């Protein structure tokens, strides 16, 4: 069974994290699949929008730490790095439906989505500093711009989890939807996007993102720092403690 499921539905490519026994933690093969399915959808004229979600009432618990540590050379061809830059370069709209845990990349990728919906069980967390790391996906720029410096500092420096209502107040979400309605609701919004004139939609998205090159540069700086942090004794000690607890 594939750990990334994909289904095309009336112009919408639905991409689903499908590793519920690991709380949909992303390993490198999942990153490869995600990038492949997004790039295929970008080149397919029948696909007008993407919807990303998770199986088993969980979005994603973040990176599969053990797998990530075995492949920690964050060069341009690293599957996670390719996925991050793919997110930034998407020309078609991306919708997210979040249920349960959205940890690390599970929260930062939402900053690249056009529409984000969650149910009342959603829990978000940015535990990078907790693990002696730094943020990724441009979050160190995008989050302060979205929620203000002090709130971003609280989220990134303390790394505490927060719920859907708080995420809505901080403008990380468009709406909070009952759990049994979330998937259908988010898919309906994605269908509406898919029905819009594609050229006008694409140009409007570009106009709304005038600082893409700044974000790209920030992502590069983050990845350089992230790579250095992975090699630090501080991070190695934190990861050893984390993996010890998870066993």
TrEMBL record:
<dbReference type="InterPro" id="IPR029045">
    <property type="entry name" value="ClpP/crotonase-like_dom_sf"/>
</dbReference>
<keyword id="KW-0413">Isomerase</keyword>
<dbReference type="InterPro" id="IPR051053">
    <property type="entry name" value="ECH/Chromodomain_protein"/>
</dbReference>
<dbReference type="Pfam" id="PF00378">
    <property type="entry name" value="ECH_1"/>
</dbReference>
<protein>
    <submittedName>
        <fullName>Enoyl-CoA hydratase</fullName>
    </submittedName>
</protein>
<keyword id="KW-0576">Peroxisome</keyword>
<dbReference type="GO" id="GO:0004165">
    <property type="term" value="F:delta(3)-delta(2)-enoyl-CoA isomerase activity"/>
</dbReference>
<dbReference type="InterPro" id="IPR001753">
    <property type="entry name" value="Enoyl-CoA_hydra/iso"/>
</dbReference>
